[in-house]
Amino acid sequence: MSGMRFTPKGYGGRRRDPEQVKREGWHEQRMLAVSLDDQRLTWPERELIRQLGDKLYGKRQEDGSHA
Predict the structure, then answer these.
(1) CA angle, corner 62, sides to 66 and 17, nearest 5?
(2) Are the CB atoms for 60 and 54 separated by under 8 Å?
(3) pLDDT higher for 9 or 37?
(4) What pLDDT does residue 32 have?
(5) Which domain of life is it from (predicted)?
(6) Residue 27 lies inside a defined structural domain of this protein
(7) pLDDT tens-digit map of 19-59
(8) What pLDDT sits at residue 65?
């Protein structure tokens, strides 16, 4: 007798593309994941994202200076 296989959403099967995860997060949860290195953004947009990140989560360590 073969049993039913049930895997919750996100487990098994095909792995979702990171951009698809971000897109679905925005549409379904109103969550935004943005890289400061995203070339689709202008400098003022990247600066706004950086300022928001600093405000919400604190300033990040500069590259190369790990505690």
Answers:
(1) 90
(2) yes
(3) 37
(4) 94
(5) Bacteria
(6) no
(7) 999 999 999 999 999 999 999 999 999 999 999 999 999 99
(8) 47
Rounded to an integer, what distance in angstroms lies between the CA atom of residue 58 and that of residue 26? 23
Phi, psi angles (nearest 5°) of residue 21: -60, -45
Number of domains in the chain: 1
Is 28 contained in some domain?
no
Q: How far is CA 7 from CA 10, 11, 54, 62, in A?
A: 8, 6, 38, 41
Give me the domain span that covers residue 42: 35-59
Tokens linked to 7:
């895997």
As a whole number of angstroms, the distance between CA 40 and CA 45 comes to 10
Q: Is residue 66 part of a domain?
A: no
Residue 15, pLDDT score:
84
